[in-house]
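Troubleshooting log. The previous run stalled partway through. Resubmitting the same three chains, unchanged.
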Amino acid sequence: MEQKLIVSPSPHVHSGDTIPKNMYAVLIALIPAFLVALYTFRLDALLITALSVLFCVGFEYLIVRFVMKKEPSILDGSAIITGVLLAFNVPSGLPIWILALGALFAIGVVKLTFGGLGNNIFNPAIAGRIFLLISFPAQMTNWPSTAMAVETTDAVSSATVLGLLKQAPEALPNLQQMFLGLEPGSLGEMSAAALLLGLVYLLCKRVITWHIPVSILVTVALFTGILFLIDPLPQYNPLIHLFSGGLMLGAIFMATDYVTSPLTKKGMIIFGAGIGFVTVAIRLWGAYPEGISFAILLMNAFTPLINTYTTPKRFGEAVKHG
Amino acid sequence: MSVILTAVATLGAIGAGSAGILYLVSQKFKVEEDPRIQEVQDTLPAANCGGCGFPGCAAFAAACVNADSLEGLNCPVGGEVTMDRVAAILGQTATKAAKKIAVVRCSGTCEERPRLNQYDGVSNCSIAAALYGGDTGCSFGCLGLGDCEESCTFDAIHINPLTLLPEVVEDKCTACGACVRACPKDIIELRKQGPKSRRIYVSCVNKDKGAVAKKACNVACIGCSKCQQACPFEAITIENNLAYIDDDKCRLCRKCVVVCPTHSILELHFPPRKETPPAAKEEEAIANA
Amino acid sequence: MLKSFRIGGIHPKENKLSAGMAIQSIALPAQVVIPLSQHIGAPCQPIVKKGDKVKVGTLIGKSVGFVSAQIHSSVSGTVLKIDKAMDASGYKRDAVFINVEEDIWEEQIDRSEALVTECNLSAKEILEKIAAAGIVGMGGATFPTHVKLTPPPGMKAEVLIINGVECEPYLTSDHQLMMEKSDEILVGITLVMKALNVQRAIVGIENNKKDAVALFTKKVKAYPGIEVQPLKVQYPQGGEKQLIDALTGRQVPSGALPISVGAVVQNVGTLFAIYEAVQKNKPLIERVVTVTGKEVQRPCNLRARIGTPLTTLIDAAGGIPESTGKVISGGPMMGKALASIDIPVAKGTSGILIVPTLEAKRKAMKDCIRCGKCVQVCPMGLNPTLLMNLTEYEVWDRAEKNAITDCIECGSCSYTCPADRPLLDYIRLGKGKVNGIIRARKN
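Second attempt completed without errors. Output:
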């Protein structure tokens, strides 16, 4: 034994879990949704996703290196996820410069001004999407018809399911199509089935727990379900709400972002219920057809408060004598 | 036109109403406070360092105003000037306190005190001290992880990356005592700054027996009591194999510095001796560096 | 479904390399260094001086104060000196150095292997014998056993819980002891049941020791009142509060002792020592130590006299490997990294774990990503990331409110953290500070 002994406090072993491992697991979970997007939008999907990732990673590298003057850690995968999620949240035909602007806002303003991964208050991809939606409403809601639709009709752009709910509920497509993802919409929010597959993967890998996605979906289903029971209009149909728009994408991949969601299980359920409630409220009574992004953003702001007021269930608190 | 008038009138009314409510509320919840507290607080340095023993300048100001005399109350940061001003406001006399400064009582540099193991925990002295005696053979000496640097609000103490020991920036040190409280090994002490910043102190806190201390560190105090015998003023005491110089009794004659076999007694800011013994030269060099 | 505790928990790789290795006694060393502080509580006063002749079992350190434990010579020979010596605490503390000469034991010690089941002593006499033998918690906590077996006034024990969990990875000393000394341990249990006047005892064994579960299930039939319960392999199953929860469904409230829910927990090693003390008049002078590590040539379980240098034990396991980066006294989760291997075996030394350099270094800490995994795994239901921040910023009142003092220092949080944050380092520091503040407030 040549060298000096190393001394450090216990524990002396580590699980081997790392930030990149968790991030890459999320990316793997996004693959099914990406394949659906690829199938529906063909090369557009690939182009938008690849460029979005490139922009996000590039901006992160440049800003960290030259503005913050620190060693960039782009390989931790968080910027890649932001890129993919941003791409999944925009229509496939979005002009590239708008996409770049969205990436710059997401990474530069929402993530790095707060200190980078771990310190941001809002989910960068969500904030980027909302920034684009407010700044470029026309381009952001120009939904190209899906590739399949193009073959049969000549339409170049069409309304999303949620748009139809607001404007023309009688023209709604059937649920099966919505579940599989054959209706117009943003890149990655197409297929609820593919996204649910991702959820199963994340749960199996223990990257996330069930609390946030399930509480969001249950709240949405309950809220619209009650309304539907009172007045069975198609715009109250809980199944349509569950399988349309960005709800699945938001509930599974955006709301569960570690940094901007609460720490405790109790907090996660409050957080999820809040998102579900606000989403439905915006969808039904707001100006925008879709509300999940706003709902997540709003609840992100409440996360520190939720963290302060929800403590984990302590040992010895509940049970005295069994 | 009438629209504009209505708007102006309405807003004006709301404004006036709110002002009225605010006034009433502020009157209702007004806290009576001795106005001198604010006055005293304004003369204080507002460093909120806690060096006076109170949690912040406001608390110290209140204590000064409420106390019958200023005895025992001293703002180490503001020093005499500030305390005189406080005394003037309160119509009392300030008690003079000798200006003090932080000294680091460890000279165990990397060469003098070889490292025996590698510490691989958080860079925090308290955590390391709770874990073990440190990465050298001396379990009393400086760990070099910078709790003192962290605690200093005046940017006056820094770990020298070469020696891994803290060094006090004398111009900036206000003797607030934050580093003294932060050090888990009680190495830092507030001592009289002395005339022309001249001071002499034992730069070691090792209580091991001489041989053990010496084995761990070349410049450790070995408790040999030579300094005690050399001191004409009985300023030096030896307890637990460790010498200590009482700065109230020390007359800065420097006899102890010369006799110390391990050079663990340091002298600062003295002019060079006429016939300097070769041993003391290095000390001179370190002290002047 | 196997029983387990209800909050948090992790499952580190078990790595029980020395499992099934029979306990070997090692040769007497030339010199032993017996620390005078091998327990929680006040250090002992030495009652021998330089040149004194001692036998195996001679009292050399007298306990002072209530929470303290006697210390006996583990060898026969001459006292060389009483001096400071480095021990597992990482500090130099008083110890008795004894030069070993022959192997003469005190007459009253029964050295035969024969099992003695009969015991006519009263509860008080049993406790006195335990105190006289200097027995402490052998699981590593080293709390004086006679103190633990004396419930505070007004409290009554209802059930004795025997900790045969050994949930620390690598360690196998308790497992091997259970396999080889099951009858002695069971007699020890009956003695403690008598001392506490309880009618029920439950032996909890983690289910990765199926042979021990089977053996005890078979043997307890002869001992009324004793049950065996296999437990889920989950860390920290052997934590006192966790084990009580798993076995009885009772949760010890925050800040309270196990006796508040009528439970007393004893480790199997301690029970063996109690058997020897009460039935064989043998003080605690030796213990079983696992010497293990991935690069260690012969991972093994050794019976060593207290005071034997660690180097002697490591040599018996094939010497210290070239690749060594860290040596741990105890297991990898709660054990203490040693600054030097020139220290003696003490009453609390359950194992020596030698870690290669490659696995010894910590990774650089990253910013918290607030994944909440530490919250999920904390077996006490705390919020480790919050407690670390509160300690860093010295917000002691909030740390106290968030129950920092409940932390059992199991290390599950630091183990799990994907950002390699030293959560426990800070929490331990904060816990100490807050405990100090609470004590100061009481005075």
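Takeaways: Chain C has a mean pLDDT of 93. Chain C is about 30% helix and 20% strand.
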